[in-house]
Amino acid sequence: VTGVQTCALPISYFKIENYEDSINCWTMCLSIREKLYGERHMSVATVYNKLGSAYYKENKVTKAKELFEKSMKLSMEVFGEHDGRTADPFHNMGIVYYDQKDYQTAIKFLTKSLSILIKAGEYHQRTAEVYSLLGRAYKHLNQLEKAEEFYLKSMKLNAKLGEKDLSLIKNVTRRNNRSKNQFSFMEPVSV
Predict the structure, then answer these.
(1) Within a 10 A sphere around the Cβ of 171, how many other Cβ atoms?
(2) Contacts for 153-161 with beta carbons within 8 Å, 24 or more apart?
(3) What are the two backbone dihedrals, phi and then psi, of residue 184, each rounded to the nearest 5 degrees?
(4) Looking at the chain, which terminus has fewer C-beta neighbours within 10 angstroms, N or C?
(5) Average pLDDT over the chain, rounded to whole?
(6) Burial of 17 from C-beta contacts in 10 A (0-12 / 13-18 / 19+)
(7) Whole-angstrom Cα distance, residue 144 to residue 164?
(8) pLDDT of residue 163
């Protein structure tokens, strides 16, 4: 059994929302990968992130944050700031803080994720999702112009990618009877 094959099972458990078994398998996968590749390997950084996601889904936020932190640090070391994979743990940490309604901190992590994606030249659905999440965070802080800016970037990127279903961001609308600086935001579907 290779280190790659070992990680097929926790992904399957995660997809069927069996997070406890996913955690157990990711933990085993982490142990195997550390033995195979050492503790400072890209596959270890990826497993930290995946394991953090499973813990987060189990509402074990402190453990999830710890694992995302490890993944962020190791990802910066092994992938660098010009590799899209480095953006993943920053994105996930941003979601944790967003869900905790700590929008300022969420913006910090999401902005870092976006910066990495842009440096990596990655303009795809994940980038559009980060734009949308930033728009939502700014909306909650009542910074409506910034919210509109990020919602529009998300919609434009989705349109450029040929995304037919914009339900992730739904829309930003201006009503005819509102002034230029007042916007009505339709809440995006939760991530």
Answers:
(1) 12
(2) 153/128, 154/128, 154/129, 157/123, 157/127, 157/128, 157/131, 158/125, 158/128, 160/123, 161/123, 161/124, 161/125, 161/128
(3) -110, 120
(4) N
(5) 83
(6) exposed
(7) 26
(8) 57
**What pLDDT score does 161 carry?**
85
Burial class (CB in 10 A: 0-12, 13-18, 19+), 118: middle
DSSP letters spanning 55-82 = HHHTT-HHHHHHHHHHHHHHHHHHT-TT
Please report where in the chains the tokens 């509109």 appear, as a residue: 148
* Percent helix / strand / coil, the chain, rounded to 5: 70, 5, 30
Comparing 28 with 177, the larger pLDDT belongs to 28
Confidence check: pLDDT of 177 > 50 = no
Measured between alpha carbons, how far is residue 31 from residues 58, 64, 101, 188 in Å? 21, 17, 34, 38
Are the CB atoms for 48 and 74 separated by under 8 Å? yes
User: For the residues 2-15, what does the mean pLDDT come to?
Assistant: 66
Q: Tokens at residue 103, please?
A: 């929008």
